[in-house]
Amino acid sequence: MSAVGRKLDGAEEPGWQVTATDGTAALQGAGSAGLLTYLSGSATYGPVPVTVDDVNAFRAAE
Question: Whole-angstrom Cα distance, residue 13 to residue 39?
Answer without folding.
Answer: 23
